[in-house]
Specification:
- The N terminus is likely disordered.
- The protein has three domains: 110 residues, no CATH class; 132 residues, Rossmann fold, CATH 3.40.50; 166 residues, Dihydrodipicolinate Reductase, domain 2.
- The protein is 31% helix and 22% strand.
- It contains twelve helices and 20 strands.
- Helix 3 crosses helix 4.
- The protein is an alpha/beta fold.
- It is globular, with a radius of gyration of 23 Å.
- It has an eight-stranded mixed sheet with strand order 6-7-8-5-4-9-10-11, with helices on both faces. Strands 12, 13, 14, 15, 16, 17, 18 and 19 form an eight-stranded mixed sheet that branches. A four-stranded mixed sheet has the order 2-1-3-20.
Length: 493
């Protein structure tokens, strides 16, 4: 053992050559997979510095470790996390979300002389023996609409089904477009030009108008409007309906869903109007009560608000402007044609298009302390996914570039917002590098600019996947499916 090694324990003799070292780490990652899956089916979600480990491949697990080592500049490796997973797998644990990276890193600096098994036990002590489910029975979920967000939500709901007693997708409501509609929708579920193939199986049962996705039976309900549907006819009860059409945004329109038998709550995947609360998960959850209708704000609002909050809490934001460089969306035209909104009629594939965004005002709804302090605008660009928020801010005091980036790195890796705020220090990243990133927004620290009390921050966000991850967490909280988190940052962040 090297004298300058920060931990108190012996490591096995590691291979000296790079290939041997890789194979050793690869073998550890391979052994992690069945343990991660088994623990997950007991409703214990393992994450690595905010990134879920369930359904990752061996190479994805190794890349996640590599990213932490390069960005956090610590000694974390598969060897450290493997020991934590082994120790956790031998315990009877209740439902929780456990960050094995934080626990492993903490053990490197343990001064109590504990074994890894004892250290892990101490880290999750009050979770041991608390087996069971958070919900008394699985929560029925209905998706109204099956577009970009609807299909990604389906993927995430299926992948997050755990032991089957969490959120349970029961039905998807769409308008029947053509003969063979079900098969077409199944194929869109299986493949995606942006996000790649679905990591699972999709089987079509045409005669019963349903899809079987990783063993989950999902009824496809064809309807022109909500009032046509009695969900109890399909065995659905007290369901959370997630409306991802954007057709209705007010209480009257969204309330139509609540008038349907079998529906108890509604979540809108867009900014809601007329006094309906808009929630950015992780930020203003405290204002949630027993609301039967909630909005999830926009993808841009979700991307920028977590960073704005931590900056305002620490340095105070005096004023600022946010420019969203946003991928084109389905409401734009592929080639020039009539559009009711200005400029959006021009070809999305050929032009940068200046358009409005409500993100500036929306920030004030989520963070009232920033009302009137921010302006915002947007430019739609010819890319299909991943957007960029450029935030030009005036802070309450002078700050250095190093201080600001170190502060944001700390929040990204060691705070209760580590699942919302991502961080990269690579000077080579481009938009496609963030396809599939679950963070609401990712700080590009290599692009940060600081001049006295003024700064410019570049925040990447997968406007589809990152936003959908936020939606899923909000949906869980709406139905009371809230996991204990280990370690708990609420008192220290």
């Amino acid at each position: 053992m090297k004298k300058n090694q920060p931990d108190k324990r012996q490591r096995p003799e590691l291979p000296k050559d790079p290939f041997g070292d890789f194979q050793y780490r690869q073998a550890l990652a391979e052994e992690m997979l069945p343990m991660i899956g088994r623990i997950y089916r007991d409703n214990v979600h393992l994450i690595l510095y905010g990134k879920p480990l369930v359904n990752l491949s061996v190479s994805e697990i190794m890349n996640s470790h590599r990213f932490v080592r390069e960005t956090e500049n610590n000694e974390l490796s598969e060897f450290e996390t493997y020991q934590v997973i082994v120790a956790l797998s031998e315990l009877e644990l209740g439902p929780a979300e456990i960050d094995i990276g934080i626990i492993a890193a903490a053990y490197l600096f343990d001064d109590k002389g504990l074994s890894i098994d004892d250290f892990v036990k101490e880290s999750v002590d009050d979770l041991i023996g608390a087996q069971g489910s958070i919900l008394e029975e699985a929560q029925d979920v209905v998706l109204y609409g099956f577009g970009r967000i609807g299909r990604l939500l389906t993927r995430m709901l299926i992948e997050d089904s755990g032991g089957g007693d969490n959120l349970r997708l029961r039905a998807i409501v769409v308008r029947k477009a053509v003969e063979g509609d079900l098969i077409k929708r199944a194929n869109l579920m299986r493949t995606d030009s942006v996000h790649g193939p679905f990591k699972g199986t999709v089987r079509v049962v045409e005669e019963e108008e349903k899809l079987i996705i990783n063993g989950n039976e999902v009824k496809i309900i064809y309807a022109s409007n909500p009032s046509e549907i009695d969900y109890t006819d399909y065995g659905i009860k007290n369901a959370l309906l997630i409306d991802n059409t954007g057709v209705w945004r007010n209480k009257e329109g969204l309330g139509t869903h609540l008038n349907c038998k079998g529906i108890s709550k509604v979540l809108l995947t867009a900014p809601a109007k007329e006094g309906i609360k808009n929630i950015v998960h992780g930020i203003n959850n405290a204002i949630m009560e027993d609301d039967d209708i909630l909005g999830a704000a926009s993808c841009t609002t979700n991307a920028i608000v977590p960073t704005l909050k931590v900056l305002n809490d620490e340095f105070e934001i005096i004023s600022g402007h946010i420019e969203s460089v946003h991928s084109y969306t389905n409401d734009q035209n592929l080639i020039d044609n009539f559009h009711k909104k200005e400029r959006r009629g021009r070809s999305a594939a050929l032009n940068m298009v200046i358009t409005e965004t409500g993100a500036g005002k929306a920030v004030g709804q989520v963070l009232p302390e920033l009302i009137g302090k921010l302006t915002a605008n947007a430019v739609r660009v010819p890319t299909p996914n991943v957007s960029l928020a450029i935030m030009s801010l005036e802070l309450g005091r002078d700050i250095t570039l190093e201080e600001l980036n170190n502060f944001l790195r700390q929040k990204a890796f060691h705070s209760e917002l580590k699942e919302q705020i991502g961080f990269t220090n690579s000077p080579e990243v481009v938009s496609t590098d963030f396809v599939g990133d679950r963070h609401a927004g990712i700080i590009d620290s290599a692009a940060t600019i600081v001049n006295t009390n003024k700064c410019v921050l570049y925040v990447w966000y997968d406007n589809e996947y990152g936003y959908t991850a936020q939606l899923l967490e909000l949906a869980k909280e709406m139905v009371g499916l809230t996991y204990q988190r280990y370690p708990n940052f609420s008192e220290t962040s």
